[in-house]
Amino acid sequence: MNALNQAMGGLRIERQTDAVGVVQLAPLRDHRLSVHAGPPARLSCTSTHRYTRGDLTLLPAGFSGTWVEEEPATSIVVQLPPALLRRAAEDLGRDPDRTGLEPRHQFRDARIEHVAWALDAERRAGHPNGRLYTDSLGLALAVHLLGHYAVPGELRSGLSSQQLRRLTDYIEEHLDQNLTLPRLARVVEVSASHLKTQFRRSMGVPVHQYVIQRRVERARALLLKRQLAPSQVALEAGFSHQSHMARWMKRVLGVTPTSLVRGAPSRRGLSSRPA
C-alpha cells in the first residue's frame, strides 16, 4: 500500500493504492470515507463490485472487514476523528453520545465528492490555505454525513420551560445591552451552539431574530407613548442608533417610526365616548 498522508486538526487525508489481493481492515479508530480516484477496479466481498471514479465508501469508527481487490484500486481516503463528528452532532442539536454513521458501500454523493477532491487538492498543494480552511471543510463534511448517513439518533429537546422563562426574562431586562449568543448561553448554562438549536426548536425562530422582534416591540411601545425622542427610544430599545431602529421597524412591522407616530392618535386628542 502506497500512501501520501497529511494530518491537520485531527482530519487525515491520504491517497492510497491497494494492490491486488486480500485486504484485512482492523477495527477503525476514525470514521473513514473513501472516493475511488483511479481506473475502474473490481472488488469482491459477498459479491463483486466494479468501482469507477467518484464511487464512495463510508465506514464508521469501529468497523472491520475483509475483502479481495481483484484489480489495483486507488482512492482518496478521508479519516474523520470521532471528536469532529461529536462537534457536528452538537451543532445539529443531536446527542453526540447517541449519534453514529451507517456503513455505506459504492454510493454517489456529489457534495461529498466535491469536498473530498478539495481536501485532496489542498493536501497536494501543501495546505497553502492553512488549518482553518481544512478544518472548515472537515466540519462541513461531518455535518453533511450526519444529516444524510447517520444512524437514527434521538434529537435533543428544546429548552426546558424553566430555562426558556429565565432566558426570555433576561432578554427583556437587558434589551438595551449587547446580547451576544455566548452571553445568552451562559444564562441557561448551555453552549452557544446548543442554544442556537434548542432556542429555535422551542420558539420557532432563531434567538437573534427573537431579540430583534422584542426590540422592535419595545421601540413601538415607547414611540406610541410620545415621551422620548426617537433617538432616545432607539437606545432604550437596544438599537445602536435611530437609523438602525428605523431599518428594523420597517423590516418587521412594515412601517417607519415616523409613519407609526403620525398614524397613532394623540393622547390629548382622545376623548371618552358618551354612554
TrEMBL record:
InterPro entries: AraC_XylS_family_regulators, Homeodomain-like_sf, HTH_AraC. The keyword DNA-binding applies. It holds the Pfam family HTH_18. Keywords: DNA-binding, Transcription, Transcription regulation. The keyword Transcription applies. Residues 165-263 form the HTH araC/xylS-type domain. Gene3D superfamilies: Homeodomain-like (1.10.10.60). SMART domains: HTH_ARAC. PANTHER family: ARAC SUBFAMILY (PTHR46796:SF6), HTH-TYPE TRANSCRIPTIONAL ACTIVATOR RHAS-RELATED (PTHR46796). This is Helix-turn-helix transcriptional regulator. It comes from Pyxidicoccus parkwayensis.
